[in-house]
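User: Can you predict the 3D structure for this chain?
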Amino acid sequence: MPRKDTMKAMVLPGPGAPLRLEVVPVPKVGPNDVLLRVRAAGVGLTVVIMTAVPGRVTSFPRIPGHEVAGEVVEVGAEVSHVKVGERVTCHFYLTCGTCRFCRSGRETLCTAFRGNVGMACDGAYAEYVALPAANVTPIPAEVSDLDAAIAADAICTPYHACREEARVGPGDTVLIVGAGGGVGIHGVQMAKLCGGWVIAADIGDDKLAAAKECGADALVDARDGDLAGQVRRLTGGRGVDAAIDFVASRQTLEGSLASLARAGRLVIIGSRPRDVFGEDTSFTVNPGRMLSEMLEIHGSRYVTLAEIQQTLELLRQKRIRAIVSRTFPLEGAEEAHELLRKNALVGRAALLLDC
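Assistant: Here is the predicted structure, written as structure tokens:
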């Protein structure tokens, strides 16, 4: 298909504003960039939150979207590791590649961090997107565009959280909070894949049913209150070896911490900025209990590019599956965002393009 000079895109005109469909120029590529024809773009709460937080989007208008699968249609003069015609997905963070954290496989802590795809540069809610070539990685032939787009955040994030932060192993009891959401639903699967006995906590019968269908061994309805009490009843009073909180409200964080067994690990994924949610999410930690029971609290900050590649391999092997409950055309992005604001989606949503 011949390349076009203009493209359709969902554009964010200002902080927290509704997205609007516009026709804009197809982006130019620099010597170290690639141009993708977008085939699928994941839609998650991260985009909704960050586009509303002052300062996260560096300039307006901006095209959001960072979970992407697309076909390479042009490469910069210095690019050699991907070729025109290949399908790729991308890493969310714009990093330097040379600081001590980037060079030690902890690029999400980059000391020269330049922001995020879809916030510091235009993203994937468009027919085409230009990205740094260093951010992209090939998609295996056996993995669909839709699954690969979701893998780039919603599946690889719990991969890192379960394996590196919670260190889930065979026989561990694991609490997944927000288990029916777009990332949490994959956290249930990933904790099971690591050998965990999984307790899934959420609100809403549909989300709890989805978590059960994805392998949860026990369910906690957070609408009933006393998260820790319910967890301890399910574990004979012992608590869990790991709690992974995908909601990160004060209530869930306190409940997750109180649910830990001795030597337990609390992993926090994401946050709920006061600017967006109007609430203080800070919570109290008892240093005496932390010391006597040797508890750990971990912040889990996205993933490495290698972990995206490993997640794609798990999809290729069919050891995990992408849970996408709704798909939309490009112009349906704002509808998907509104459903996320209302907490009305089970699993992930995505945009499917045919440009």
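Residues 145-165 form the longest helix (21 residues). The chain has a mean pLDDT of 94.
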